[in-house]
TrEMBL record:
Residues 368-396 are annotated as: Disordered. This is U6 small nuclear RNA (adenine-(43)-N(6))-methyltransferase. One of its GO terms (cellular component) is nucleus. GO terms for biological process: rRNA base methylation. It comes from Gymnopilus junonius. Residues 368-387 have a biased composition (Low complexity). InterPro entries: METTL16/RlmF, SAM-dependent_MTases_sf.
Length: 491
């Protein structure tokens, strides 16, 4: 579950039903635990629960038609939105906040338009475009948006059977797209899935056939088509994303991406109770995501406390034996340990090493907080049972060094090249060496500390921008070796 999910603790159904009386007839006592709950296999109870949460916690009066999907808010829905916030605000501490509004696209928004509403209620600086193919769901989505006075933030557009899935991207640019695709490929697949389960489901499925089935391959076929369309649209959308309900689909889509040489991608998972879902993101930009959020930066002020981390680009909890391990993208976050050296010594050595590398700029900054969207940590009205007071302040006294490499001057071949040729000077202190977009790379380094019974300092580098991964990794390795040598020479 996402660390910022306000429903990490069990819901207080007594308080929730008091805030929304239509839920009261469905509140029961669990015979095993003695706690109040509802029968999640009761379709009406599920609908009243979603209505109650949306009204009390988000101020939204949600109309859920009886013949369309009822979205369970506390589960993958809110986790997906929070992950997208992590993507959008990944480097805000270092690069600063953007002055423009964030624009997202929801593919197949459904009758409730749940994702756009959650996204814009959680962060009012966002605006969303939502698409819907089904006539009934389209009409209901429009009504849910307008009846809650969200027409300025959310626009619902009608999709067509023969048109492209990502058709709004051709008309304007987006920071991200999101999608909860149809899960099955046929009615037979639905029946086979139900028969293969050893135990009955914990919750009733309320989805209509048009919401659950995509005849051209289910979720794999749907997302494959999104990948194909995104190749033509490229950076018109910065991050294309989709949820996936089957682990096998993750493997399929990763192979689709790799076959097209799309290597800037991310995989995460959403876990809440017995429900597990995955999500994948890919981009044609040269901007890269951190492996986890928050990164080691948050350990600076809390050396003995490891804050809860959420996967952004790589699932950190799986081992090399896990089926998904080989599918994970290359690491964007690299670190090197320097045992027995204080953070201040490592910091000084690091900065001196960076300053000595030609055509590399290094700027020290001390962020006041980790990237955090406005109103992103909790609903507008905190959920009863939501965890409180367990997120430490994220201010830090340790520095972050923002680094920009304009040219490869550190590799062995680059040093050999510089020895064999004299750059012709132009003007006073400028040379004529050209700098292409491929040469330009950005990242940040920061020392962090965290161990029990001693000092353990590490330097972590996060790749922010660039197109040559080999160059980034060689730079990090070069800096690590130089810092290690400098520290040993100073002892």
């Amino acid at each position: 579950m996402h660390p910022r999910n306000p429903y990490r603790n069990p819901l207080d159904f007594t308080a929730l039903s008091a805030a929304y009386p239509p839920l009261s007839p469905h509140v029961i006592t669990n015979s095993s635990s003695g706690r109040k709950t509802i029968d999640f296999r009761n379709e009406e109870a599920q609908r009243r629960l979603t209505e109650a949460i949306m009204l009390r916690d988000f101020g939204v009066v949600l109309n859920i038609p009886s013949n369309r999907l009822c979205p369970p808010v506390p589960h993958a829905r809110i986790n997906y939105v929070l992950w997208l916030q992590d993507i959008v605000y990944a480097h805000q501490t270092i690069l600063g906040p953007s002055s423009r509004r964030v624009r997202g696209l929801d593919i197949g928004t459904g009758a409730t338009a749940i994702y756009p509403i959650l996204a814009c209620k959680s962060d009012p600086s966002w605006e969303m475009v939502a698409t819907e193919l089904d006539d009934v769901s389209y009409g209901c989505a429009c009504n849910n948006v307008s009846s809650n006075n969200m027409d300025v933030s959310v626009k619902v557009e009608k999709a067509s059977v023969d048109g492209p899935i990502l058709f709004p991207v051709g008309k304007q640019n987006f920071d991200f797209s999101m999608c909860n695709p149809p899960f099955y490929g046929s009615q037979e697949e639905v029946a086979q899935s139900a028969e293969s389960k050893e135990l009955p489901p914990n919750a009733v499925c309320t989805g209509a056939e048009i919401e659950m089935i995509f005849s051209q391959g289910g979720e794999e076929g749907f997302v494959r088509r999104m990948v194909e369309e995104s190749e033509r649209l490229q950076t018109r959308c910065k991050w294309y994303t989709s949820m996936l309900g089957k682990m096998s689909s993750v493997s399929t889509i990763v192979h689709v991406l790799r076959a097209r040489s799309i290597m800037n991608y991310a995989i995460t998972e959403f876990v809440q109770g017995q429900t597990r879902r995955w999500a994948i993101a890919w981009s044609f930009s040269d901007t890269h995501l951190p492996d986890v959020y928050p990164s080691f930066l948050s350990l600076a002020t809390f050396p003995l406390i490891t804050p809860k981390q959420q996967t952004v680009a790589r699932i950190s909890s799986i081992t090399p034996k896990h089926a998904l391990y080989t599918l994970l993208p290359p690491r964007n976050t690299l670190s090197q340990l320097f045992p027995s050296f204080s953070p201040s010594k490592v910091e000084n050595a690091l900065f001196e090493v960076l300053q000595a590398i030609p055509r590399v700029s290094a700027t020290i900054t001390i962020p006041t907080s980790l990237p955090a969207p406005s109103s992103a940590s909790a609903p507008s009205t905190p959920a009863s049972g939501a965890a409180k007071g367990d997120s430490p302040s994220t201010s830090t006294s340790l520095p972050v060094i923002f680094v920009e490499a304009q040219e490869n001057t550190w590799s062995r071949s680059a040093r050999r090249r510089n020895q064999n040729c004299q750059l012709r000077k132009v003007g006073d202190d400028h040379d004529e060496a050209s700098v292409s977009a491929k040469d330009h790379s950005q990242g940040h380094f920061y020392p962090s500390r965290g161990c029990e019974g001693g000092v353990l300092c590490s330097v972590e580098c996060q790749w922010i921008y660039g197109s040559d991964r080999g160059l980034y990794e060689s730079f990090v390795g070069h800096v690590g070796r130089k810092v290690g040598a400098a520290l040993k020479a100073g002892t």
